[in-house]
Every structure is written in structure tokens, then in C-alpha cells.
Amino acid sequence: MAIAKKPSPKKPPAKVRAVKKRLSKPQARKALLARRRALVPKPLPAPPKKPPSPGTLAAVRAFEQALRLFNRHDFGPAKSAFVSLLGKFADQAEIVARTRTYLAICEQRLARSPSVPRNPDALYNQGVFQLNRGNTAEATELFEKALKVEPRADHVYYSLAAAYARLNDTPKAMDALRRAMGIRPVHRSHARRDLDFAGLRTNEDFQQLTGFGFDLVDE
After folding, report:
1. pLDDT in the model for residue 114
2. How far apart are CA 82 and CA 205, in angstroms?
């Protein structure tokens, strides 16, 4: 009787080792950065910006107008514009801070202005210069000083009247104009055509004094 052979036990299959692919240094660096970025949480989207309020827009426009005067070196009108801005837009913190800076510069520049001349002609010329630059209050002071030195200067009275008319000081404008015409009547026709007196053309005293609105022959 044949004896059956026992089957020999099967050898376990040899383990297959996983072969790792070696990465180059740049590739390894990119992979590391990619893993780090994946761990960083994405930032939340920024909330939409609110449009500026009407008050802010008005303050910006007023500041830009004052800044234009400042850049033209019209420090007197620029100072007035900055002061007005502070009064109207005190709640606009950023604009107020910038305004105070420029206002301080205006005050420094005005403090350095040259000394006032004493000669009446020089005072008058300086007054006309300030009037043309829009510094009407400064112009009236110069004209008044010129008249203290030369009380019969009709052209100074006339310019003083024009300055007071710009300041809407009708009584003083009319008084200075009367004095100018009393010395030299030709100022009557000048005043009828002068745009500085446009605001007085509806005033009855001005109409009677200058003949505005009537067909009068120039003196």
C-alpha cells in the first residue's frame, strides 16, 4: 500500500517593499508649502466699504476749496476758509485734524507779513493789492490809514467805498462814496458801472447818489 506524501507547507510570499519616489529639493519644498497652506484657515471676506456720508463729502469739498487758496499763497482768505470749515464740520475728525495743520501754517505766514508802509501812496497800493487778492478787511485798514495821512485823496475814498461794499457794510460804503464824489464828482459815473457796487444797485440812496437806472450824462 502506497503511503501518500504530506503536502509541503507553502512558503509565504515575499513582502513587496513599497518603493518611495524621491523628490527633488524644489519639489519637496513645494509640497511642504502646500501642506502648510492647507493647514492655515482662510481669512473671512472683508465687509463691504460704506460710501462716505453727505457730511463727509461736503467737508472734503470745503477743504479742497480752502486748500486751493492756500496753494495760491492767499493766506488771508485761506485762513478764513479753514476757520469756517472748523465751525461747520467739527464732527469730521480726519478733516478737522488736517485743517488745524494748514490753519497754523496760514497764521505763521500772515505773522511774517512785511511791515505796513506809512506813505499814503504806498498804503493805497498795498490796499489795492490786498483787495484784488480778496483780503478785503486788510484792504479797508490800509485805505483808512492812507486817508489819515492824506484826507483829500478821493481815489482812496472810492476804493474804501468799494471795499466796504464787498463787505456788505452799506452805511460805510455810502459814506466813503459820498466823500469821494464830494472831492471829485466823476466818481459818480464810475460807481454806476463798477461791479463792486453791484450789491447796492437796488439801494435807493445809492440810486439817488449815483443816478443808477437813470439816463444821466457822465460828468
Report:
1. 58
2. 36
Q: Report the alpha-carbon distance of residue 116 to residue 138 in Å, rounded.
A: 11
C-alpha cell at 201: 444797485
Report phi then psi at 147, rounded to 5: -70, -25
Look at the block and give the residue holding cell 469756517.
84
CA distance 150 to 127: 14
| Residue recorded with cell 490796499 | 127
Say how far apart CA 169 and CA 196 lie, in whole Å.
12
Give the DSSP letter of residue 45: P
- Give SS3 for 50: coil
**Which residue type, as a one-letter code, is found at position 186?**
V
Tens of pLDDT, residues 37-77: 766 566 666 666 677 788 889 989 999 999 998 888 888 88
CB atoms within 10 A of CB 212: 18
Whole-angstrom CA distances from 32 to 46, 104, 210 are 28, 57, 93
Which three three-digit cell numbers place residue 8? 509541503
CA 133 to chain centroid, in Å, comes to: 17
